[in-house]
Amino acid sequence: FPINLGITIEMCAGIVDKNKSRGEIAREEILEEDLEEVDLQVQEVLQVKSYRSGVGTQGSKQIMYYCEVTDDQKKFLGGGTVDEIIDVVEYSVEEAREMVN
């Protein structure tokens, strides 16, 4: 769709396809999608909520995580690929929980 129709808030996401903990996979996805050059430890990635994305046999289990990253931790701005529009949107834990409840 053309950008003039608007944009949505999209969280970085991935699938559990490695022999690693879900926290480690979430950390890797955060770094891959948004912040490749940040020293982010697994214990800094906190699980907020788990939920089903749909009903019946097609609904998959989703797990939402939260982490905080400051500008001081970043080695450079950006993330993702050249053709992506990535803006940082900041929410507190309470705001994130409110959005998914």
What does this structure look like?
This protein is an alpha+beta fold and 101 residues long. It contains two helices and two strands. A two-stranded antiparallel sheet has the order 1-2. The longest helix is centred in the first third of the chain and has 12 residues, at 22-33. The protein is globular. The model has no long low-confidence stretch (mean pLDDT 76).
Provide keyphrases for this structure.
hydrolase; NUDIX_hydrolase-like_dom_sf; 2 helices; Uridine diphosphate glucose pyrophosphatase NUDT14-like; UDP-sugar diphosphatase activity; alpha+beta; two-stranded antiparallel sheet; single chain; globular; 101 residues
List the helices and strands and how they pair.
Layout lengths: L21 H12 L12 E7 L8 E6 L26 H8 L1
Antiparallel strand pairs: 1-2
* Main sheet characteristics: 2 strands, antiparallel
- Strands of the biggest beta sheet: in what spatial order? 1-2
- By helix and strand content, what is the structural category? alpha+beta
* H and E string: HEEH
Quote the average pLDDT. Answer: 76
What Rg do the Cα atoms give?
15 Å
Distance between the termini: 28 Å
Query: What amount of the residues lies in strands?
Result: 5-15%
User: How many distinct beta strands?
Assistant: 2
Query: How would the global form be characterised?
Result: globular
Organism: Glossina fuscipes
GO biological process, one term: nucleoside phosphate metabolic process
Protein name: Uridine diphosphate glucose pyrophosphatase NUDT14-like
Keywords: Hydrolase
